[in-house]
Write a structure and sequence with these properties.
The chain is an alpha+beta fold. It contains 2 helices and 7 strands. Pfam families: tRNA_anti-codon.
């Protein structure tokens, strides 16, 4: 069998389609990496991670458009930033961030740095869950 452009094109097309179908099928099973707060460094900036801990405080920003949760997992503390769009989603779902205070939660968010301290930006309203 002789390889020509048409055969190579068909093989490449089939391989690409199988790969894309596989990615779509398994995308919902991909979980963010679970880490502790003391493991978070500048090397993790931009990564989406999962962190569990107790909400020690809930503070509204001075503009009222975002909220800050102080999360403590026993290894350290980190601020979780909840922007206005996520606050609206949470309120629409009947959740108040003040209800999380003193409770153990699991959050999924992306790591960022602000004024030399690491922070976690909440991905969406489904990214915060009460743990028992």
């Amino acid at each position: 069998m002789e390889l020509n452009d048409e055969i190579i094109f068909k093989v490449a097309l089939i391989t690409a389609l199988v790969g894309m179908i596989g990615m779509l099928a398994f995308a919902s099973y991909i979980e963010p990496k679970e880490i502790t707060i003391n493991e978070i460094t500048r090397n993790n900036i931009g990564e989406t991670v999962s962190v569990s801990g107790v909400v020690e405080s809930v503070k509204l920003s001075s503009s009222g458009s975002s909220c800050f949760l102080e999360l403590n997992d026993g290894t350290g503390k980190i601020n979780v930033i909840v922007f206005e769009s996520v606050l609206v989603e949470l309120k629409d779902a009947g959740n108040d961030l003040n209800d999380f205070k003193g409770h153990n939660i699991k959050v999924v968010g992306s790591i960022t740095e602000y004024k030399s301290s690491m922070e976690l930006i909440l991905a969406n309203s489904n990214s915060i869950k009460l743990e028992s």
